[in-house]
Amino acid sequence: ARDEAFCFYYEENLRLLEQTGAELVYFSPLHDKALPENIHGMLLGGGYPELYAGQLSENNAMRTAIWEAVTEGLPTIAECGGFLYLHTTLTDREGNSYPMAGVLPGKCFDTGKLVRFGYVMLTEKEENFLPAGAQIAGHEFHYYDSTDNGVGAVAKKPVNGRSWECVHESPSQWMGFPHLYYYSNPEYAYRFLKKAADRIYLKK
Questions:
Q1: Model pLDDT for residues 88-120, shown as the tens digit of each residue
Q2: CA atoms within 13 A on the CB side of 46
Q3: Is the whole model's pTM more than 0.90, yes or no?
């Protein structure tokens, strides 16, 4: 996803995906009515969906398409803004609530301050995108929070040792607030693309 609402990606992450064999196809949850044809994975990056919540909500066709794709098992990574978009509703700072994609049961809301800001190391609880116990580096920068942040991984601040549970996980999805840096553990990217490649095989 890449448009005004979803515009934050580590370019190194995208290059690593391409170097590993991925073909990146961009689409807009704001302006497009359907996902690109014949995709085998989806990356919903960070950005500012809260500034475009009304437009995102009005695009029922795209919200439905993404709900169907994720619930049908399309390998999906959603970080921060992309994570917000997958919730049931998003409530902006004026108190207006907008329906989002509805993949996740929680609701998102403005806190008026930075939440869990800074660098973290994430430890995988169960084997999905990484082996159980493996770690990957991430970063959180958001003023919004969720009523259900997930429990699939444990985030820990390297400086003060504070930790908390986060991330909704399944064998095919990783959805949470942290922006991940793939080069801190490239196996994460490799496994994501392996899941996408397996989906190609299953469709044949």
A1: 999 988 889 999 999 999 999 988 877 777 799
A2: 20
A3: yes
